[in-house]
Amino acid sequence: MTCNIDLKKFKVGKAVIAKMKNQFVLILDLGGRNNQLIARRVRECNVYCEVHPYTIPLEKIKKLNPVGIIIIGDTSSNKLREIDNGIWEIDVPILGISSGMHLMARAFGGSISSSNDDEYCEVVASFDNSSTLFDGLPSCGRTWMSRDYYVDTTPDNFDTIANSDDIPTISIQDSSRKFYGVQFHPEISNTENGSKILRNFLYSICGCVGDWTMESYAKASIDNIRKTVGNKRVLLALSGGVDSSVAAALLSKAIGDQLSCIFVDHGFMRKNEGDEVEDAFADWDINLVRVNAGERFLNRLSGISDPETKRKIIGEEFIRVFEDEARKIGTVDFLVQGTIYPDVIESGAGDAALIKSHHNVGGLPDHVEFKEIIEPLRQLFKDEVRQLGLVLGLDERLVFRQPFPGPGLAIRIIGDITFEKLEILREADFIFRDEIAKASLDKQIHQYFCVLTSMRSVGVTKAQRTYDYTLALRGVVTNDFMTADYARIPYDVLDKISKRIVNEAGSINRIVYDITSKPPSTIEWE
Ligand code: XMP
Question: Ligand 1: residues within 6 Å at CB?
Fold first, then answer.
């Protein structure tokens, strides 16, 4: 049977959540930059939450049965959206953040004014500590907010519970109905005591107990996988990346050798990486098949230099190799996908333009016989996936591996790819990582790697003219990989890296450091 996507998907993820959802908080996303950040902050308080777009039907909200709702937007990007006013009748505590507060004020007869000041900036707020929302806070503190809209008249039955020097109302409450609004963003770390404000809302106002932990998730998830899978067979594409490795560990704990993992080594891994992945799972109860398909991929990419074409070919070829191998295993009942929560959040702001077609190992094959898809990480953020990996006892090298794109080194060689170029890049990249670790910078720089450019230039080695490649070093610091700044690597470390690479990697006579942030650049070069 060939499978299409409309199968009974996501069964395991959803069932686990249903079990743990007695303390569920709904985040209503009006668009803007902070939808994922607020969700992570809520989860850091050990409360399970989900982000849904502001267009979600009221009936669905009621069915989700949240113990609290957070409405969040940032005013400059979405002006004032319309939401279903039935939300105010559901009888659950609501926290409106930024434009969420403005919607709340407007819904109850308050007035909103706009100002010419559209700066997103620091504002010192004075708090009314008698409000449960600000309980335990100092009487004033630094906050961050947009100032382009503000509450001009506080609605009847609401009190103003915070102000600043120039804005008389930056927080409101109707404590009898447990409605609270803040113009500033408690979820960003620059806002002092932001997490205390969120904890006050979640624990004291919504009555959450904070039982969302990775230990409890692992236990519930393992129980559910066992129930769902029974004695049937499961297939997983293992890439060695954090997500597929944690998924493999979770399934291994749940169903042992009923799990088969196919690890397609496309030949674009870093030095020794294929062996490391294999070693990390040597003692786990799974069937692991490693396919060394480097030659097959190189042949398919011969003479190809366009980045998007490379990505497409690698993605397609990956699926074909996976299918070939899966056929040897025979019919399986379930296919695992390592989808994580940021991949599935439907933003209130609509879809972004395609910059690069991402290849995530584990994409859906067309010709593998299976009946259902299991997505055991579908509700988790990346940091939660890592925590889960640690709880399960997975090798820390895999848990804390820096992000590595599905197409691997193939998109870090500009222009066409050859085996020789791959070997040069592998060695240079190994040296770069080695020196960064020796300088104890590996925890501070979030992603760092080498790019072999297609440019060659004249140099001199041992009094001989050379005409060799230029290598670029890239190192970035970032919170979310959506924006990034280049890492300020000290000159003496760069110096050591440069000398070692030129001496040891071969065919490189010039090294440059990429000093662009994202945007306007991207982290990867292709
Ligand atoms: P860019 O280059 O878009 O990269 O700034 C952002 C982050 O995504 C990683 N990346 C990928 N990850 N499959 C992946 O799983 C891909 O095809 C892919 N391309 C880029 C990149 O390494 C960075 O961490």
Answer: 355-356, 358-360, 403, 405-407, 447, 481, 518, 522-524
Exposure class string for 102-113: b at 16+ Cβ within 10 A, else e: bbbbbebebebe
Bridge partner list, 163: 126
| Whether the model pTM is above 0.85 | no
In terms of Cα–Cα distance, which of 148, 130, 182 is closest to 79?
148
Q: What is the mean pLDDT of residues 379-385?
A: 91
Within a 10 A sphere around the Cβ of 447, how many other Cβ atoms? 17
Contact (CB, 8 A) for 395 and 358: no
| Architecture, CATH, for domain 214-399 | 3-Layer(aba) Sandwich (3.40)
Strand partners, 288: 261
> Is 3.30.300.10 the CATH classification of the domain at 412-513?
yes
Opening angle at CA 178, ends 120 and 63, nearest 5: 95
Q: Is the pLDDT of residue 144 over 90?
A: yes
Residues 67-76: pLDDT tens digits? 999 999 986 5
User: Residue 406 Cα, ligand 1 centroid: separation in angstroms?
Assistant: 8
Cβ-in-10-Å burial (0-12, 13-18, 19+) of 215 comes to exposed
**Residue 518 CA, closest ligand 1 atom number:** 5
How far apart (Å, rounded) are the C-alpha atoms in residues 53 and 312? 31
- Alpha carbon of 523 to ligand 1 centroid (Å): 7
The superfamily (CATH) of domain 23-205 is Class I glutamine amidotransferase (GATase) domain (3.40.50.880)
Element housing 288 (H / E): strand 287-292
Ligand 1 atom index nearest CA of 356 = 3
